[in-house]
Each structure stands twice: as structure tokens, then as C-alpha cells.
Amino acid sequence: MQDTKKFIENLSGAGKSIGVLTSGGDAQGMNAAVRAVVRMGIYVGAKVFFIHEGYQGMVDGGDNIKEASWESVSSMLQVGGTVIGSARCKDFRTHEGRLRAALNLVQRGITNLCVIGGDGSLTGANLFREEWSGLLDELVQSGQISEEAAQTHSALHIVGMVGSIDNDFCGTDMTIGTDSALHRIIEVVDAIMTTAQSHQRTFVLEVMGRHCGYLALVSALACGADWVLIPEMPPKDGWEKQMCHKLSESRLRGSRLNIIIVAEGATDRHGNPISSNAVKDLVVRCLGFDTRVTILGHVQRGGTPSAFDRILASRMGVEAVLALLEASPGTPACVVSLCGNQAVRLPLMECVQMTQEVQKAMDEKRFEEAVKLRGRSFENNLNTYKLLSHRKMNAELPRSSFNVAVLNVGAPAAGMNAAVRSAVRVGITEGHTVFAVSDGFEGFSKGQIKEFKWGDVGGWTGQGGSLLGTKRTLPAKHIDKIAEQMRIHNINALLVIGGFEAYLGLLELQAARSKHAELCVPMVMVPATVSNNIPGSDLSIGADTALNAITDTCDRIKQSASGTKRRVFIIETMGGYCGYLATVGGLASGADAAYIYEEPFDIRDLQSNVEHLTEKMKTSIQRGLVLRNENSSENYTTDFIYQLYSEEGKGVFDCRKNVLGHMQQGGAPSPFDRNFGTKIAAKAMQWISKKLKEFYREGRVFANTEDSACLLGMRRRALVFQPVIQLKDETDFVHRIPKEQWWLRLRPLMKILAKYKTSYDVSDSGQLEHIVRLRAKDNSAI
Questions:
Q1: 166 catalytic, yes or no?
Q2: Every domain range in the chain assigned CATH 3.40.50.460
Q3: pTM
Q4: What is the fold, at CATH topology level, of the domain defined by 178-300?
Q5: Which residue in 522, 517, 427, 428 sits closest to 721, CA to CA?
């Protein structure tokens, strides 16, 4: 980080023109990226042009290149695909085609390009940039442009954003569209599971991914599939027998269905393709199971973008404009991407070369290396899947004499069950006896404790709420009884999955260690709450599902006003005193304002918001959206804001209000929450195993150090264990929120995209990182 802070006010786009295009296969979220580029570009004073139909539009020129206005990207955020069109373009691959494209850009003064597409599209853009000065020389020689025009437009700057549902681009954690494609796959899997269960069927699902198994792997992890076939890690010879054994074993344990997920590019070790039909025929031939094939096809590219993709694309779009403003003639073409929850810039060709190396490693049958080259996130997904899906025979299991208890504490959050399933299975794999506690600390004190076996958590990943049962009760008043139950069941370690009460509970248990030796055991907490208000973690299980619920509802509410007169909606979100859901939900649904406790507001702010909306309604925009966190202000209640807007907007717009309530806590967990829950709980259980060995002395476990009671949280780019006692200083206990929250940096983005003048600290942006250094740093990425 630099010493001097950089602010957006000091960056000017005056006199610059930016062209934005989407190219290659479409992906949900591309429109959100286009919208962000257009609005951020206009905000800094640049002209922004749509280039319709990708490179084809650039080559053909004419009406394909049109100047964009602020209103022209209104209502684009929630639309899937790409509104400005995309096409595979043969002409741009020819020198002649690129010459015509250069002429079309120079005629409109465009020397900044923002390309949203896959690696092919970005490689094409880089080639165009390298040839640029030569192309201009040719145009001068043929008399199509003047010498002066060539000098004015002498440098072409390119910034890429990766839009690809396959997540096949190295250097980025997630590409635009991947999360939405996972939503489509998981919706289908959840629906198929109910019919498969009824008939005791096996389903073979084929998902996209000709060269990359990300979608197959992550959806297998998210639904607990029995078997997955991906191109990066073909199964070992004899896999057919192994797979059939696994399927029949799961049926013997009482499962009524099997799910097998196949990536379309799956092969065996010798490069022979493995088709979904071949897998079906194999199961029928060997086991005689009633088996069906479902090929998902283009369904995966369709539908509305998920909340994650909208936020990712909006952040990337803004970052892309900043990168273009700061580019000098010598700056290499870069890609803006997300690493953890941080925006980063990476040299485009380094990423492309790394992506090509993966393919080369696969072609040369260096499969372990291909997995490593895909990045830590991919590797961790694969390792976690292997850990959870292949139950070793009892003879193969290491036997420890340790008993580990798992419990849920606080309000229910979607993804808790995935975390419990993962903890139980990893615990069993590590050789422990795993006990599940019902109804939190209250159930613990009453002895509601039962041993869980591998099959007891089958089918849990897709279930919402908390199947174990959860309560907000804190342990302090039951401490004697809890200690007694720990003694009765000889509990040697605790894994607590929950919200702020779980954090407080762990602090209370640690404080009581001096009185109760039974509590001197390793304890770890995994954050799970829709409010995302846990110190020590940027994200918690359940928040992504809640965000999607808010975003879906806001989409519907906005749509309810289409075709009617001008209307503003006031929507109240959950979160306690934490404004995460209101802020990030506001960014994902295109809100005009989001009122939160962390950013105090007064009547003047409310007045200026009303005036801003009144101005907006004088244009072609017909709808306004205002979010309010439930505890943002004691006196400016949702009713007050609704009445104020209704009164002040008379004659211009009318108002409606909505309190979203508990629907934000319900529903099936999103793919992100299933995976986050699965991976973070697996890591927590592995930590427990390590600590049990460390603290085992003279026939018993005794852990009394600060670092034996930890919270496992996601911090910037990695999963980190932090002693809960050290997090006390970071906590506002009265309002139950962390003192510093990373997402507050996203608030100016929401304001800029809603046309407010604001101050935006861009000090974090701007450093071009290198992909290899990035991978070395990223040693505990999720």
C-alpha cells in the first residue's frame, strides 16, 4: 500500500474514449460489467462506446459502435447473457480485419478498450495492441487517416475481464458467470434428487467444461455426488470397478439414489473420452440400477446472474476503468480479477500462458501438475472432495481414541448442514469418534449428544436451516452441566458452527477453563450467520444465500413496477447492526441508497436522496430502490423513511415498502455457501486433529493456551486461525459487529453506480501483481 492515499477525484477521464465489448461465449454477469464500465467511465468524464457483437462489430463499424449514456445501461444488472451481443469473429483473426477495426476505432477517437471474454478473446485483444502502431502506419500510408490522427491515437490500452462460466482462466479465483452456472447446476441437481429418491435411481449428469473440470468438481462437492469425472484428473485404470463398488456400497448403507457428475471433456488416463452415456451403460451392465442421463447443456449459461456475479462484475468494471485511466503507453495489457475478496490486476499474457500450460500438462498426461497449475482453490476443492466422498474401510482408518463434539449455535444459516456433514466425515476419516450435539449449548447441558456415523449426514449439503437444531443460549449459565457432559462423554475437542453467540460462547468457555478442567480442550469456531458480523472473518456461511434471496426479491419487486407510473421501493433487510446485507445487496440489485448503522445519516441525507431520486425520475428511468438495514437508526425507521419519501415525492413518484424478514434465513443454501461450509469445516477438523496430538500428555488431552480456542475465518485471501481472546479488541460487543469491516470500501461503488458524487479511496488498486508471486502468497486460499 502506498503512503499517500489515492482518490477517484484526482483521476480524470476527460478527453478519453473507452470502447466496451463482450466476446466469445456469453456468461451471466457480463451486463453488470458493461453497466459498471459505462457508468464509471461517464462518472470520470470519459466517453464510453458500446461495441456491439464483439470483434465482429469492431470490424464492421457503422451502427455497431454507439456512444452509451447513463440511462442506456439501466435495468441491465439483472439480465443474463450480454445485451450488447457477442459473436465468434473470423474476420478479426485476419490482418485485414484488424486493419478495418483499427480504422473504426480511430475515427471515433477510441484508444481504450475494455474486453469482457475468455482467453481467446483476450489473446486477440493483446495481439491487436501489439500490432496497433503498425496498423496505424498502414492506414496513414493508404490515406485513410492523417498523420496527426495517428499521433493522437498512437497508444492502445487494453484491460480484460474474464467472462467464462468454466472458470478456466489462471490467475483469477472466479471468472464472471461461474457462480451463476453453479446456481443453474445445483438447482437441477436438487430437483433431480427428489425424483431419484422416489424411484431409487442413479443419475448421470453431464455439465459443461470441455477443458476445465471446475463446474463438475464444485457441483459434485456442493451436492455430495458419489463420483465425479474431470479432464484434469482422469480416473486411474480400473476405475469402473471402483465406481460400481462405491455406488453399491452407498445403497447398502441405505441411500436411495446415486449422483454421478461428468464434465463434457472427461477422459480416461489414455485420452479416451468418457461420455455420460458410457457411464450409464456401465452402471446398468455392472449393477443393474435404474439409471438416467441428464445433459444440462446451455441451461448453464442462461438465467439471471447470481448476487456474487453481479458484485464481482460491478467491482471488476470499476477497476477496469481505473486501470485504463492509469495506463501509460508502456503498461502491459492487464486483466482485472478477484483474489479472495480483493481486486487485483495481473499481466494478461502471464495469465494466458499459465492457462495454456494447464492444457499442455493435460495433453502430456502430467495430471498432478495440471491440477496444481489450475491454482490453490481448484486443488483444495479436489482434495476436499476426495476426503469427503471416499469412505475408507474401517480397517484402513487410523484409530484415535479421541471424541470430538460438533454443534450449531445462534440463528440458523444456510450452509450449516454442509459444514456439519463435512466435519463429521472428516472427523471419521481422521479416526475420531464424532458426537453431534442438538440445540446448541442448551442441548449440550441437557445431554442431547449422540454419536454420528458416516451415513447419518448423507444428503445434508443441500438442506437449509440447521438439521442438528440450534439455539441462541450462551453457555455461561449452564457451564457446570456442560462440563459434566464433557466428562460423561469424554469430549476431547469442540467444533462450534454458528454466529455471534458462538463467538461469545467460545469466549465464555475459555474463561471458565480455570474452574473446569474438562473445558481445557481444543475448541474452534466456524462463522455461520446471515448477518456476516463475526470479527476475524470477512465472510460467514449463510451470507451468500441471504444476499441471493435479497437480490431475487429486489428483482421481482422492481419488475412489479414495470409499465406502471414512477415508483420507489423502500426495502428493509436483516443483519442486526451490521450493514453487510443492505450494502452488498444494494450493490447487487442496483439500489439508489442503502441506509446502515455504520455510516450515520441525518435528515439532510434523506432529503438529498429524495431530491436525487426526483431528478432521476425526470429521465427515462422509472424505478428507484432504497435498502435500509433493520437497526440502521432508532428514529429513522422504515415507516418514517417510507412516509418521508411518499410526502416529498408527491406528484413525481409514489412509494411502496417491503420488510424481507425471515425469508433471508431460509431456502436451500447457495453453491458458494455449500462449498465454503464444506471446505472451512474440513479445515477446522484437520486443525482439531493436529491440536489433539499436540496437547495429548500422559493419557489425556489438556489444552489451556490462548491458541487452543480459535476462530477460523477468511481474511482477504486466506483462511486463518485466530485465538478468540485476541479478537476481543476488534469487536464492538454492544452492537455485535467487528470494529473494522472490509465491505464498507464497496459503499462508494454503489453510490457512483447510482450517480452520486462521492469520495472513493483507490489506494488499494493499481499495483500490477505477477501470477507466480501471487500463487506463492496464496498458500491457504480456499
A1: yes
A2: 178-300, 543-665
A3: 0.94
A4: Rossmann fold (3.40.50)
A5: 522
